[in-house]
Amino acid sequence: WMTGFNLVQTAVLVANKTTLVLPLLLLVSGGRLAAVPVSQQQALAYLSIQTHGIGFGIGLLFFGVALLLRGYLVARSGFLPRLLGPLLQVAGVSYLVNSLALLLALSLARALFPAVLLPALVGEAALCGWLLVKGVDSRAWAQRARGTPDGRRIDA
What's the pLDDT at 38? Predict the structure, then answer.
């Protein structure tokens, strides 16, 4: 599920990047848009850039859900400290709150930003830092690869 949410997030963000091409087409069109007044071209370019921000918020909704799931898996894995799981889940909630505010109450989003994303910074930085400095618990990893303590295989 988590990977599926990450794939949808990536697809949304890739499609969203096309909104950044429109301002280039409008503002560097040469003579192709001569019938459209420059002020309207500029307004359309600005609208397209604003639309990109909303599309980014939609993509981050999927990322927030993926972080909630990833936090659950990290907490249950035994390969990483349990505390990292709830930190990632709080980061996921942070992204969800930010994105929902961006989509449903722009004035609230402006009031919350950037403080609402501080938990996301802490959670993601903690995971990155732990993986860079300590890595996963290789003994737990090897034990899990051999099977559970009662002899069952994980993949069975």
Answer: 84
Return phi, psi of residue 154, to 5°. -65, -40
Tell which residue, 98, 104, 101, 129, has the closest CA to residue 116: 98
Position with higher pLDDT, 24 vs 7: 7
How many other C-beta atoms lie within 10 A of the C-beta of residue 95? 26
Quick one: how far is CA 140 from the chain centroid?
Answer: 29
Structure tokens given for 80: 């990483």
Tell me whether residue 66 is exposed, middle or buried, using C-beta atoms within 10 angstroms of its C-beta: 0 to 12, 13 to 18, 19 or more: buried
pLDDT at residue 35 is higher than 90? no
Cα atoms found within 13 Å of the Cα of residue 60, Cβ hemisphere only: 21
